Amino acid sequence: MSLIVQKYGGTSVGTVERIREVAKKVAASRERGDEIVVVVSAMAGETNRLLSLAHEISQSPDERECDVLLASGEQVSAALLAVAVRDLGWSVRSYLGHQVRIETDSAYGKARIKSIDSSRVRQALKNGEIVVVAGFQGVDEENNITTLGRGGSDTSAVALAAALSADACEIYTDVEGVFTTDPNICATAKKLERISYDEMLEMASTGAKVLQIRSVELAKKFNVPIHVRSSFIGAEGTWVVPEDAGMDSVLVSAVTCDKDEAKITLLKVPDQPGLASQIFTPISEANIVVDMIIQNASEDGTTDLTFTVPKADYKKAMALVEKTTSAIHAKGIQADPHIAKVSIIGVGMRSHAGVAAKMFQVLSREGINIEMISTSEIKISVVIDEKYSELAVRVLHDAFIDKKGLP
Amino acid sequence: MSLIVQKYGGTSVGTVERIREVAKKVAASRERGDEIVVVVSAMAGETNRLLSLAHEISQSPDERECDVLLASGEQVSAALLAVAVRDLGWSVRSYLGHQVRIETDSAYGKARIKSIDSSRVRQALKNGEIVVVAGFQGVDEENNITTLGRGGSDTSAVALAAALSADACEIYTDVEGVFTTDPNICATAKKLERISYDEMLEMASTGAKVLQIRSVELAKKFNVPIHVRSSFIGAEGTWVVPEDAGMDSVLVSAVTCDKDEAKITLLKVPDQPGLASQIFTPISEANIVVDMIIQNASEDGTTDLTFTVPKADYKKAMALVEKTTSAIHAKGIQADPHIAKVSIIGVGMRSHAGVAAKMFQVLSREGINIEMISTSEIKISVVIDEKYSELAVRVLHDAFIDKKGLP
Predict the structure, then answer these.
(1) Between chains, do B65 and A58 touch, taking CB under 8 Å as contact?
(2) Which residues of A lie closer than 8 Å to B, measured between beta carbons?
(3) Residues B57, A83: C-beta atoms closer than 8 Å
(4) Domain B3-174 has what CATH class?
(5) Strands A332-336 and A302-310, how do they pair?
């Protein structure tokens, strides 16, 4: 008998019919003899519907109240799924964040789970019940309702799996698993059978939207095997697991693309200590997350400084930088929202030299200019003109994955 | 400085615009210097929408899960109202049943409030905050979510007012107050300035839908003055208050009409001990509430037994009675779903004889046949053919209220 945590996303519970289908899958899993804890997202579209109500009322709706509002979405789908499972004759109960209880910090809208008191869920499982938990939500120390941010139900599921020492956390979604790249861009994209936590983390932070980054961090920390799979077909999906010896024989596991960033360059800034801090402190105080930063000192004692921010924060960041520009005597600002960050990811890079060089060659052959470069031990990202992004993904996938090319 | 509990019904918070209007009213009350606790219902239509989702999934959806589902409706309106009040610049927080905390028994769908821990609300008021509480919901001892039944937000509001020793509980609704009868039926219906708890209780249980019965019981028990008034116009509404000396100078305060019952008669039942119990035990076990019961023994040792049940339970009750009929050797069953119960209510009846006789005269003059009669100290109800119900209301209103007729 295994203990399995299953998470179903918004599309999987998007209609009454689909909720009934999910109930059948849950019942079938239980019938095989496993203990089942199900985590659900809000019905597709519901979170946006609720948010737009709040925004109709106020331009900047109170964050605490938005969390109370949004948490109702998962409450509805958890109750409906429990109704559907019970209708199939199984013993089942739904639980909300405050009932489990899932305790978080008080950062409304992006709260982090601090602890889970799993005793109530354990007791329910012991009584032979299927447990349905509302994803995405928790309560802080003072019992205020909090939410975990977009994709937060993934994190609820992995955190529950960790707290319960579950054998696996199955993430049911509308795709068949984790792909080597976006199949909509590249026809030869393949479903991965297995991928390491570190690779999945890099994929999530470079544009793959399949799992919330925080859920992968938690899975890595607590060694929870994640199985990403389709709610609509029965086939195995992708296992996200600890790295093992065989994995580094693959040089590049995936190619990702992120078009949600914009680039800002400060020209000819006098190269003095404290410069970066003057530029980035106001941006960070405005809660804008800066991704890549590049600085090249030139011989005339000035430097060009370039960084990327989320497109959604682009205008806000520009306004802040414009204020700073005169204070630091920069010559000007260049900005470009039409960029894409294309990345190749693979733990095999650790033990192979020349991967970056080959990536630059492949792009150069297509006449694609590289505007920024950023690397980690298992990832190389380049920023290019947005219009070349699909082409770049295809040629990199062809060179590194289809042809398994070594440098 | 007074402490006022204000309750806004589903129509009053039915749209984003109306929520903004309610926020303005709340802010205006706060601005006058009062401490304000607001109780809200779900947005109009939401409870039905959620229930129909559950019924699409299951013919008899689990009651515990229905309460989890329905409680989300008040969660949404409480959060949205708090967003709107905050947007006007006031300090405000929403609280759900489990946060206040409002503890109930475990009778899902019709739970009764057992206790309210008002310390959190008191603290918030002390901090100068406006408090918004989700109506209709509570939690049982084990923190399972419960709901209080249709109109339950009235009861939430009165219970909170009692727990906080509030100076008044204002029930904002889509009518201007409590009327002497339904203005849609009788053009001379007048808004009552004041009415006693007992009269309001009789009105609520004979067809007036303005307040949940349980809320009036609580108000009476804890001496909470209720002010029923319109959310859309500023005028005073109706105060529901303890009975005072002047009230019994009015013979009849109101005429009510209830068309939601059906009548079932068992013919020529052998008149033996244990008869009623044999008939009513299966009905009560099916959770069907029987309202009036009349039994007339005749000289041949048989008796006709007539009772009324909610129209919604009529068929279920008939099926149960048909089973019983042969067992108790009754001659047959007559059933009539086309009845109306028309009642006159007034504390003045206590000290005046002949009110019933006059009521029967008034109806008889119009050729209206009386099928059943039931009386209390301050109420007389008659069951008549449904088609005469409006006529009966009008002539009774004319005789007893417009003409202030004494017998």
Answers:
(1) no
(2) 16, 19-20, 50, 53-54, 56-59, 61-62, 64-66, 68-69, 71-73, 75-76, 78-80, 82-84, 86-87, 92-94, 96, 98-99, 143-145
(3) yes
(4) alpha beta
(5) unpaired
